[in-house]
């Protein structure tokens, strides 16, 4: 085990208050944050070594992270884990949502493994339009796609889970199915192989029928 003298290797302080344990962790600038876990998870959390706070752009907040460095023959391997995956006994890249929005609160009651295959939620805008809520991989609402009411059953069903994709030049609304990636506008308009779907107002998140037309490629 190698030791790096910085905020990632400074020993944590643990304070247990009944069923909850507070952990003092450091940010890169040396300032302290307090993270929270269930006391019943204290042993396995401590066994991982030192925990620190690191900014994560997807969460727009600090996550409680750990780095374990091991040496196998002449190869040095660095493995990063987040505390929520340790608490829930999942892979570190598993999509986990903090229910109350506090990423430092890693009690099991505040953690939820995100089901990335569930149907999208939606809102009624008016008699003709719904807004499909697009979430990121952590279950956080990211954008909304407009759809005509008559296409509700076509796009909201067990087959599709729609997500926001930044795309190359502009955002798109996509779903991943066994056959590959599909676009919401294609599911609605069914273009032929010689056609593509054009968004009349140039907004790819507006998939109302009146904003879509099939055009030759």
Automatic annotation (TrEMBL):
It comes from the Bacteria. Pfam families: HNH_3 (PF13392). Residues 95-119 form the HNH nuclease domain. This is HNH nuclease domain-containing protein.
